[in-house]
Amino acid sequence: MKANNKNYEKLSSIIKTLPEKPGVYQFFDKNDEIIYIGKAKKLKKRVASYFKNPESLSGKIAVLVKKIFDIKFIVVNSEIDALLLENNLIKKYKPRYNILLKDDKTYPWICIKNEPFPRVFATRNIIKDGSLYFGPYASVKTMNTLLELIRQLYPIRDCKHNLSDKNIKGKKYKLCLNYHIGKCKGPCAGLETREEYDKDINEVKEILKGNFKTIKQELNRKMHEYVEKLEFEKAQIVKQKIESLIKYQSKSVIVNPMINNVDVFSIITEEKFAYVNFIKVVNGSIIQAQTIEIQKKLNESPEDILLMSIIDFRQKYNSNSKEIIIPFKLDVNIPDTKYTIPIKGDKKTLLDLSERNTRYYKLEVQKRRSLTDPELNIKNILTKMKKDLRMKELPYHIEGFDNSNIQGTNAVSSMVVFKNAKPSKKDYRHYNIKTVTGPDDYASMEEVIYRRYKRLTEEKKPLPQLIVIDGGKGQLHSALKSLEKLGLRGEISIIGIAKRLEEIYFPNDSIPLYLDKRTITLKIIQQIRDEAHRFGITHHRKKRQKSTIKTELTSIKGIGETTSITLLKKYKSVEQIKILSLEELEKCIGKSRAKIIYKYFQKKA
To answer: The domain that contains 36 carries what CATH number?
Structure first.
């Protein structure tokens, strides 16, 4: 630390004076710009941890520490206060080394305007004038459907008139078309009182909060009241409103109606990105949902990212839920709120739904990214393979081997090459087994691996980063023997894949690895294995066919390879040629050669 940071003494003195209290710390660079903001349960302990063992820090954090020129802090009352302050400061200053949660300014809200006879409308601008805002809505379609429902249920004005008592009494405004078609009751002309209008607005508020149950009960009460008074037309109008409400509610996901006012969160983390899903449930219905992608900056833990996301989402959606469903335990508690980690039941179903949405969103983002940046997509695939297969470097160049011998004849091996996770067919090779007699997979694999990499080393050509052997422990062991002879063991990563359960075997490890069947790593290994098998079988078939031509037809005196190929192309096999008539043979290869072949097979018969 002293060698790397000339400002060490200044920083040491600051750290010594830091309190053992909860708070937020800010790291500044030499230009007096904030480069990182963090929260702490105990400021002194947390900040000191950056400087105690600099050699043990990960790459990105080590770079951050080298750039710290000054430290400032803010003491707060509790850890949750520190978390809230950290979230707000990160949004304000956007430090380089902090993850940045997506800003909500692009998402629309539903506003109930603070004015006489309030309007209800969609907006993207929040004005602090006492108006009520509900949202934000990640889906504009969902928001518009909700606004349409409100307009069906309640005749709320959409004009921008200033409906003050003075203007109404002075008859400043004329009734518009909405009044005549029943979409407004004409408060501008004094035809609806504030009390009547505000009753509708209060019910709109309940709908926007997700309290459909309360509204349905109130509408049912009104409907029965009208029926008792024999006001059937009014009762029918209320009934239609109830049906509209039920129809809208049926479009949203319904869970157990006893689950009321709950927030659900799930997270998927990868090397560079994290994905967090939020679902809000009120009275058994999912009324809001959103998934975001977060770019990691300093290898933040899933716990830290999830906690920051919870605070951000709850602020964004003005959520005051008393229960939060999460996939794992968090250390920081939110006052008057409990965490639930469900194992089974309806709450587990909700968590599973959230996790499924997170996975779908991640795949969608990755597909979009792969279309816009194919090279980045390839690198992500290779990075995943490197991690799954315990490799030291990315497998840009992979070679796969398979043996083919049917009933012990014409033993061959095939080698396929994948570059950047795609087949490189011009580099494929076939090997005729030379030193092995009979069907011996292990010895054949040993021979081919030795021949391949002896040649590459002699010609000083680049070696692959990964070798894939079609087979289990036995074939892998044989391949390793050849690499050992060549002094290449440990220089190239090598694995074996057994067909039965798709087990992945590693050198010196008797316990196989079972990869998730959906992972891209297994899919590419399977593709390499299948391609090597296909390529080997094709070559083996040609070799057998050529062998058949030599032993059966070309052994006939006076019949050459060209005639044999002509006959086999037309009749497919020697067995079919044996039963041909003289006339049929003459039509195909002429009289003289037809007579020779016909006589040969007649004698053998």
So the answer is: 3.40.1440.10
Pair of tokens at residue 455? 């040649």
Residues 524, 584: one domain?
no
Contacts of 308 (CB under 8 A, 6+ apart): 83, 86, 87, 99, 101
324 strand-pairing partners: 263, 339
The CATH number assigned to the domain holding 400 equals 3.30.420.340
Cβ atoms within 10 Å, residue 198: 13
Residue where one domain finishes, among candidates 342, 369, 396: 369
Closest CA to 287 of 253, 321, 250: 253
pLDDT in tens, 120-156: 999 888 788 889 888 777 677 778 878 888 888 888 9
Q: Is residue 376, in this structure, part of any structural domain at all? A: no
Token pair belonging to 175 = 């009734």
Q: Which two tokens stand for residue 473?
A: 């422990």
pTM above 0.85, yes or no: no
Beta-carbon contacts of 102 under 8 Å, excluding residues fewer than 6 positions away, are 292, 293, 294
Closest CA to 278 of 244, 319, 332: 319
Q: Are residues 66 and 179 in the same domain?
A: no
Give the CA distances from residue 414 to residues 35, 426, 531, 532, in Å, rounded to whole numbers and listed in that order. Answer: 55, 13, 9, 6
Torsion of CA 417, 418, 422, 424, to 10 degrees: -30
Q: Which two tokens stand for residue 13?
A: 């003195």
pLDDT digits (tens, 9 = 90+) for 450-480: 999 999 999 999 999 999 999 888 899 999 9
- 367 exposed, middle or buried (CB, 10 Å; 0-12, 13-18, 19+)? exposed
Q: Assess if residue 270 is contained within a domain.
A: yes
The pLDDT value recorded for residue 1 is 47
Q: Is the pLDDT of residue 116 over 80?
A: yes
DSSP letters spanning 73-130: EEE-SSHHHHHHHHHHHHHHH--TTS--PPPSTTS-EEEE-SSSS--EEEES----SS
DSSP assignment of 331-348: SSPPTT-EEE--SSSHHH
> What residue spans of 252-316 are helical by DSSP H?
302-316
At a CB cut-off of 8 Å and minimum separation 6, what does 480 contact? 489, 494, 507
**CA–CA gap between residue 512 and residue 593 (Å, rounded):** 59
If 0-12 CB within 10 Å is exposed, 13-18 middle and 19+ buried, where does residue 484 land? exposed
- Residue 491 shares a structural domain with residue 439: yes
If one counts the domains in the chain, the total is 5
Higher-pLDDT residue of 509 and 396 is: 396
Same domain, residue pair 410 and 519: yes
Domain of residue 524 covers 386-542
Given a contact cutoff of 8 angstroms between Cβ atoms, the answer to whether 260 and 283 are in contact is yes
d(CA 336, CA 193): 40
